[in-house]
Amino acid sequence: MAEVQAVKDSDTIHLIGHLLSIRFNPQMADVWNIGLNLALRISDLLSIRFEDIHGSRLIIRESKTGKLANIQLNTKTLEHISRIQAQYPSHIYLFQSHRCQQIKHTAPKPISRRAVSMAFQQVGKEVNIILGTHSMRKTRGYFLYQATKDIARVMKMLRHSSEGVTLRYIGITQDELDKDFVSLEL
């Protein structure tokens, strides 16, 4: 299986959100839009409960690393969350499965990672990008790196411990680093 990619231009980011909304449902577009802004692994993103949101902060323990993620929510993310909460005031999870509500006596669950993955793969084919659940996290890291050129900052945001892993993760290749050195003359 090919490694998923970061989306490297804003127009494609918006197109993916639009396609997810019309090809699947607005909830998939919300996963994409909120996921881009939080840079969490998909398992952590889908497990967000409304009780994890404290004003303008999200506080959760990452399942893979056990590290505490204390994230300041930006305006766009807060708007998405407020809309979802107003639309589904009885939901426990930010991305709660609507299928579970149709089955009586079933505890609420978030939508599945598999459903998100399949939706992203399908839209990725349409826009000719290898798109997956990690693409949101990679895209956020890529754009932060392009804006700051500060790999330590990107590592901290993604909670990585190696510069090499982070550069490879966000799709920064040696060729791109070489271009930066050639184009910036002091």
Would you give an account of this structure?
By secondary structure, this protein is mainly alpha-helical. The protein has a single domain (10-183), classed as hpI Integrase, Chain A, CATH 1.10.443.10. It contains ten helices and three strands; from the N terminus they run αααβββααααααα. It has helices at 10-23, 26-38, 42-46, 75-87, 99-102, 113-127, 135-148, 151-158, 163-169, 174-183; strands at residues 53-54, 57-61, 68-72. It has a three-stranded antiparallel beta sheet with strand order 1-2-3, with no helix packed on it. β1 and β2 form a beta hairpin. The chain is globular. The protein starts with 9 loop residues before the first helix and ends with a helix. InterPro entries: DNA_brk_join_enz, Integrase-like_cat_sf, Integrase_catalytic, Tyrosine_recombinase_XerCD. Residues 1-182 form the Tyr recombinase domain. Keywords: DNA integration, DNA recombination. It holds the Pfam family Phage_integrase.
Strand order of the largest sheet: 1-2-3
The first-to-last residue Cα distance is: 42 Å
User: What is the CATH architecture descriptor?
Assistant: Orthogonal Bundle
Largest sheet: 3 strands, antiparallel
* CATH topology (level 3) name: hpI Integrase, Chain A
| CATH class identity | Mainly Alpha
Net shape: globular
Name given to the CATH homologous superfamily: Intergrase catalytic core
| Mean pLDDT over the full residue set | 91
Cα gyration radius (Å): 17 Å
What fraction of residues sit in β-strands? 5-15%
Q: Would you count the extended β strands for me? A: 3
Helix count, DSSP H or I runs of 4 or more residues: 10
- Structural class, from helix and strand content? mainly alpha
Please provide the ordered H/E string of secondary-structure elements: HHHEEEHHHHHHH
Number of folding domains?
A: 1
Low-confidence stretches: none
- How would you describe the oligomerization state of the chains in this entry? single chain
Helix content range of the residues, please? 55-70%
